[in-house]
Write a structure and sequence with these properties.
Blueprint: E1 5-9, H1 10-15, H2 17-25, E2 29-34, E3 37-42, H3 52-58, H4 71-80
Parallel strand pairs: 1-2
Antiparallel strand pairs: 2-3
Length: 92
């Protein structure tokens, strides 16, 4: 699926910045222009990601977590068991 990109003027962006951010939250990339020249690009932030070593470092000392040959399968099973959409209305 192609990413939606829109071009708007500085005046349009400033006139309803909340609406602009709502579109960005929905995945749209917004290019803000002055006299048809790009001034800024607003896009959704990249999610924070941790490396495996950072995750391991976060484990408590008494953790019994192990990374064995089936670790990737365990992670995939956990992901597959929680595929339902989250209700974000509680976050706002």
């Amino acid at each position: 699926m192609a990413k939606l990109v829109i071009h708007i003027s500085e005046i349009e962006a400033a006139s309803d910045f909340a609406a602009l951010l709502a579109r960005v939250r929905a995945g749209t990339e917004v290019i803000i222009e002055h006299n048809s020249q790009p001034v800024a690009v607003v896009h959704p932030a990249e999610p924070v990601r941790r490396t495996i070593s950072e995750c391991i470092a976060l484990l408590s000392e008494d953790s019994n977590a192990t990374i064995d040959a089936d670790f990737a399968n365990d992670v995939q099973a956990a992901i597959e068991s929680h595929r339902e959409a989250l209700d974000s209305s509680a976050w706002e």
